[in-house]
Amino acid sequence: MSNKIEAGRASMVKLLALMHDVINNPALYRENMALVSALGSQVALASYADDERGIKAFSLNTFKKHAIGLGETFQGIDSIRKTAFKAIQKNKACRRKPSSRRSQSETIALLRKQRAAQDIDLMRLVMIMKELKDLAQRLAELDLPDRSGYYKKEISRINLMLITRGR
Fold it and tell me: How far apart are CA 83 and CA 110, in angstroms?
């Protein structure tokens, strides 16, 4: 895989992480007009760039190609974009007192949602650790003529698992 493709995929991973952070903490991003407008449409999101976060701008077709290369679908990324945009819009609309019962219920719901996301992340990490243990055992037991080639193939599959949907 070329460095250009790896850099593009790394940028996509950072963009996905940013969108997940927007979903979890929309109050932090509601004043960032460049990000809010980028979340407004597919083309705007593809052309969004943020040098501080390491996010590069792409054409829409290149954006779709990198999305597929990560194992995500473009529709999946678009769904995350829409959810992030709705989270910011909802956060802009509500200005309740922080000590009200309703806001506490919302905080509880948000914390439960974050915990569920962390449970999923933990489950993925456990699955990846199991894959790594199995790989180590196979490398120790199998008599392969090209161990390094087998290792590189398997580790690239595991790296892809780490990149997709990661933060």
Answer: 14
Residue whose token pair is 């990661």: 166
Domain ranges of the chain: 1-95, 97-167
Full-prediction pTM beyond 0.85? no
The answer to whether 35 and 22 are in contact (CB under 8 A) is: yes
At 115 the pLDDT is: 94
Assign 61 a pLDDT band (cuts: 50, 70, 90): confident
Tokens 């501080």 correspond to what residue?
Answer: 52
Q: Give yes or no for a contact between 25 and 70, defined as CB atoms under 8 angstroms apart.
A: no
pLDDT of 167 above 50: no
Task: Please count the residues of the chain.
Answer: 167
CA angle 37, 10, 139 (to 5 degrees): 150
